[in-house]
Amino acid sequence: MNPLKKIYCRVFQTVFKIALPILPYRNPKIIGSVKQIPVVLNRKKCTRVLIVTDPGISSLGLTKELERTLTEHGIFYAMYDKTAANPTTENVAEALSLYHAQFCEAIIGFGGGSSMDCAKTVGACVAKPGQPLEKMKGILRVHRRLPLLIAVPTTAGTGSETTLAAVIVDAKTRHKYVINDFCLIPRYAVLDPNVTLSLPPFVTATTGMDALTHAVEAYIGNTTTRGTRKNAEDAVRLIFENLDQAYQKGSNKKARKNMLRASYYAGCAFTKSYVGYVHAVAHSLGGEYNVPHGLANAILLPFVLEEYGPCIYPQLSKLAVAAGIANENTPEDQAAKAFIQAIKDMKKRFGIGDTVPELQKEDIPKLARFADKEANPLYPVPVLIDAKELEKFYYKILG
After folding, report:
1. What's the CA gap between 398 and 4, in Å, rounded?
2. Distance in angstroms (rounded) separating the CA atoms of residues 104 and 81
3. What is the pLDDT of residues 217-228, one digit of tens each?
4. Bridge-partner residues for 139, per DSSP?
5. Range with the lowest mean pLDDT among 44-53, 135-144, 271-280, 322-331?
6. Environment class of residue 363 by beta-carbon count within 10 Å: exposed (0-12), middle (13-18) or buried (19+)?
7. How many helices and strands, by DSSP H and E, does the chain display?
């Protein structure tokens, strides 16, 4: 990266770091069960809600308990269940049309990060009816209060129930972009392990590693706080203690509950401290080829950590202690390398490879430019990398 661009990125990131204490971050209020949602809706005097979910969740019948609970309490609901794995502008337009047609007053995002991102973006469009969606991309372009937004994560990984971000794919260009605003943070997060019990093992693994990526990238960045470091360490500890159990036995309610907590903590960490190049590259792959975000993050994470090198060994050594794979007396470099190796071993146990078969060599320069545009100057990464240098990650995962 050229020196002037480096200076610009670091100045931009420093300004955000200085502003952190005064920015209106907040954590959603936690609800322990979907059965408690009507209490919240009644308190807010909302009698008509839109549920935003995806075809997989709908076909598994995971929304049935929520639907039954809403009906028993006399609350009308409309269901939008066409959200794609990487939600598109078309998904948002369709869900928004249903919201208005059914005179809804609140939104429930039910599913993984895709459903919650779609729900958040629908809320943003309701709040700003006269503004095209593409005009909201970037930072603080919404700044209006959304309708009541409740997030029900069915995967323990995305952390979308805690974040101020929504990631959307332009249906025409396939370019993936991020909308960031404090008003997108859901008012309530429902951490109910019962809705995660039927999650397939591979999805359990990739979404769990998504949460791990959130925690790690937040921890090694340059905009951490005492609170985000604590959240990231707690998330890493819970993931290493529980992800294998949730993967091996999906009905293990304790492991599922702990993974939801891990995802929540990781979400709280990266909402303030942001992510890094793993996410930027993964988003470009999701936009172009519809690669599931958690899978892309899992594939990329050890490659990016190795590229950063010794400058992140102090942070990785602390995460190794949190994960239980090193102790306080383990040499820093040894602990850091052990942590990266533990991630590689985790991938192998879960059947996650090192390549993306969909990736086409001729697309790499374009994808690297997308990743560069997303990451720089926003993400406070430990090492700055420009578009040309980012290409190396795509070549590493070229099938």
Report:
1. 31
2. 16
3. 999 999 999 999
4. 180
5. 135-144
6. middle
7. 15, 9
Residues 118-145, buried b or exposed e (16+ Cβ, 10 A)? Answer: bbbbbbbbbbbeeeebeebbeeeebeee
* Burial (CB count <10 Å: 0-12, 13-18, 19+), residue 7: exposed
Which pLDDT score, from 0 to 100, does residue 107 have?
Answer: 98
User: 15-52 burial, b for 16+ CB within 10 Å, e for fewer?
Assistant: ebbeeeeeeeeeebeebeebbebbebbeeeebbebbbb
CA dist., res. 54 & res. 109, Å (int): 10
Mapped onto helix, strand or coil, the DSSP state of residue 394 is helix
Please give the Cα distance from 390 to 193 (Å, whole number).
Answer: 38
Q: Tokens 């925690």, residue?
A: 215
Cβ atoms of residues 351 and 244 within 8 Å: no
Residue 178, pLDDT above cutoff 90? no
